[in-house]
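Progress note, project year one: complex with adenosine-5'-triphosphate.
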Amino acid sequence: MTNPSQDKTPLLEVDELAVDYGLKGVSSRAIDCVSFALRAGEAVGLVGESGSGKTTTAMAIAGLLSPNARVSSGEVRYRGNRLPIDDDAAMRPHRWSETSVVFQGAMNALNPVHRILKQIAEPCMLKLRMSRSEATARARELLELVGIPADRGAAYPHELSGGMRQRVMIAMALACRPSIVIGDEPTTALDVITQAQILKLLGELRSQLNLALILITHDLSVVAEACDRVMIMYSGRIVEDGTVAEIFAQPKHPYTRLLIESIPNPASGKKMIRPIPGDPPNLVNRPSGCAFHPRCPSAMAVCATEVPSLDKFGQGHVACHLHRFSQKDRVAAHA
Amino acid sequence: MSRRIGSILIRAIITLLMVAVLNFVLFRVIPGDPASLLLSGARTSVTAEQMAAQRQNWGLDRPLFPDQMVDYLSATLQGDFGYSFKFRGRHVADLILERLPATIVLVGLAQLIAILCGVMLGLYAGWRRGGAGDHIATGASLALYSTPAFWLGMILVVIFSTALGWLPGYGAHSPGAITSSLDWLLDYLGHLALPVTAVALGLIGQYVVVARAAMSDVVTEDYMVTARAKGLTGGQMLMRHALRNAMLPVVTLITLNLGYVVAGAITVEAVFAWPGIGGLTVEALNARDYPVLQGIFLLLGASIVVANLIADLAYGLLDPRVR
Ligand SMILES: Nc1ncnc2c1ncn2[C@@H]1O[C@H](COP(=O)(O)OP(=O)(O)OP(=O)(O)O)[C@@H](O)[C@H]1O
Ligand code: SF4
Ligand SMILES: [Mg+2]
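Model obtained:
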């Protein structure tokens, strides 16, 4: 276990993954060429505008794609083994035991007619084959672990605040001791203070339980606070990934740069969020070449025709023609 | 919890009182003097003195409000609903009680069948939304829903009674002597078959539509995604998470419909000459038998209020959010 070479093998590998959604006979690609690796205990942020494919990526990893989704290419490997992510029944043993999900706080992710203790105990009984009393005891432990007195377990979801509900969701996600927890905008609907508390809790639990965390958000400041690495998605593709320090200090993709510049920063007197000009692309009419080219301040002729591949750059990766050519080539491309 | 029940009870009592008052007012504003109605059967012409005597006799000379209304309310509270015009000298309460069992058997049985079939079919259609079974169940139940029950009854009579001669289409018993109680029961069930089918078919569509809508709302709920993420099988998702939530509106509909069990199925009872409350209503309407109508209306109002009361209480048991 302490073998350093074993630590190097990624827990999860996503390889050239593409997912299409079929809607009224029309199929459109939601994510394309998504590749990344996740090591045990690592926290990765997944950032992008609405519709960029963050949830689709996460649901594909968790084997929770909706029935109208189709994995058209690529694969996901967990501890080196290919996951049958397009087979609902075959994914069942993997779910919650290996990968669990903390859904958005505003959502009605808890069943309104069952007491929270019962909902936390349910996966313990069904997946860990615990008896009812064992499962209840475990559920009480989990409640305490996320900072809720175990006696509150008799409450129904509507009797709890948004922050408490999200703690319950986290307790539930830990029930079967998964190695990966996906948080799909877990703090979005919460006020700033509660948001910070939940992020802190997730961070503590991660180091305590050696969890790998995939944190989906469109808020870069959340990533800065809670993650080691970050992946930036645009129009279904990862356009840049790298360590948090690297990306904040030296964003390489023009989209990443604009995203970072748009964060309000009271220290520099910038209080308003400055949105990136132009409209986010839609799935059906995705721009040719680099999907960002209609909005990109550095766009070149080649950008409208050729899709930039995600290439290694420094510690991370970037998909942008600016970084594929040497300075001399770029001058040539402009000419 | 007890506070909620208390306020539900108080509301029910106030509603009942209002039903009784409305019932009183309604039958006083109908044109026509009760005294002349009472004497309308007389062969010889009625003198003014006879009229006045009648009016005094029935208390009609006293002011409507408060005297007559207080009289009515206190008599009603004591279970005295007055005398029928048509069936001279008979208590309205007796007439209603006499007809009630036939109606409760007919409509109660039909409700039971419609609930069992309709709710299961609707829940299934909603769970398998968009599938072939859903399209068939939804289409058929919408067709039934929009067809008048008496028309279904007439079709049933034409097919199974007139053409095929399998089942009786008239009354509750065959004329002539019945020897054993088993024969009596079989004969009764035979007479019951067609009207029960007509009423049940008319009701089934409503249950399918409501149960399907409830279930198809539930399957798109976020907690169903959570259940799937937790690795539950389809069956576990249905039994542990979907069913109870989908049953909330269905249970409300069932309990509300219980209120109509005593009101009878007026049109179907008329088609089959079923000796129930519905038949009595038609007879009383034809004879302008106001006291009987008044009694039936009061019964109907009261049973609907009680059904609402049960629905409120049942909802509180099923849904922790309203406790
Ligand atoms: N079940 C579905 N059927 C059809 N299209 C879908 C479905 N789910 C998502 N999409 C589409 O796929 C694209 C990617 O959606 P996804 O939910 O992955 O984005 P996201 O980055 O999570 O966005 P958000 O920030 O709004 O949650 C969007 O254009 C969306 O409309
Ligand atoms: S590839 Fe071209 S359009 Fe796309 S981000 Fe880079 S420079 Fe801009
Ligand atoms: Mg999303």
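Residues 1-6 of chain A have pLDDT under 50 and may be disordered.
The interface with chain B takes residues 62, 64, 92-97, 100-101, 103, 107-114, 122-123, 126-127, 156, 158, 172 of chain A (CB under 8 Å).
No further modelling is planned for this target in the current period.
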